[in-house]
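Data card: per-record layout.
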Amino acid sequence: MTLLSSAPGGASVARKTPSAHAAPPRRKQGGVILAVPALVWYLVFMVGPLVAIFVIAALHWPGMLQPVSFAGLQNVRTVLDDPVFMDAVANTTVQLVVALPLMIVGAYMLGYYVAQQPPGHRVLRYLLFIPGLISTPAKAMVFYAVLSPDGLFNGALDKLGMGSLTDAWLASPSTALACLIVLDVWSGIGFTAVLFAARLGSVPDEIGEAAQLDGAGHWRAMWRIHFPVIRDFVGVVTMLQFLWTLFGSAQNVLLLTQGGPGSSSTTLSFLVYQKAFIAADLGYSQTVGVFLFLVGLAGLLTIRRVFRQNY
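The structure for this 311-residue chain is written out next.
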């Protein structure tokens, strides 16, 4: 604030007084101090393990209580020469390419339907959310009961006179990975649909009404009108499901197939677990972990680029 005062001789002199709206410097310093615990937590529990992965990947470490030696790039050569690793790469690629589009497209269509508030839409929201409330071991038990040789699926085929189609679905090299993909899609599609329905519910009603006046049906309104509006949200949900499928598949593999038969259902995340806790080869395990981290980072950047808004 500036004030005018008269100096000797009649001249006016401008004087500046402190503004009443100026923030005291102590407030800014206090905000920085409050952020220190969160920063320390992030460095110790987020950056620390990430750095540890790269460090352990360069070591020969045959078990937690065994002597450690420097291996350099030997672990990388061992991993790349291992056919099990190549099978894991192929299985993970198939899992992502099949499960992710099915989950996102199916969930978006279900979410759009729920967002139109059909009769019973409130109950439908709860039904879609149920798979997300069931623990992973419980879901694995349900799928084992359905797909085991004496399970419900083979029993239904026998009842329908198609007994020749029965198989040991979880123990067959040609179907074990497909069963895991079905479990991934079933587990994630309902929860994702509820997220899409919530986001579509916040789209202004005027947009849908204008589309109807222009003669757009539900299919066109869903993909040409509403989808571009929530495109960035679709990208966020796709990132979350990509990370869950990439890093979380080890649980289902461990509970249902153990990576077999052979390595027909071994994924990269399960290979990290298997080499670390079963084979006790921590260097190999974390080398695969580094590769998994790079794949995840590249996937996130790609998804972000694909689903970014064009305006």
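Known properties of this structure: Residues 83-115 form the longest helix (33 residues). The beta strands are 2-6, 12-16, 59-60, 69-70.

See the next section for split statistics.
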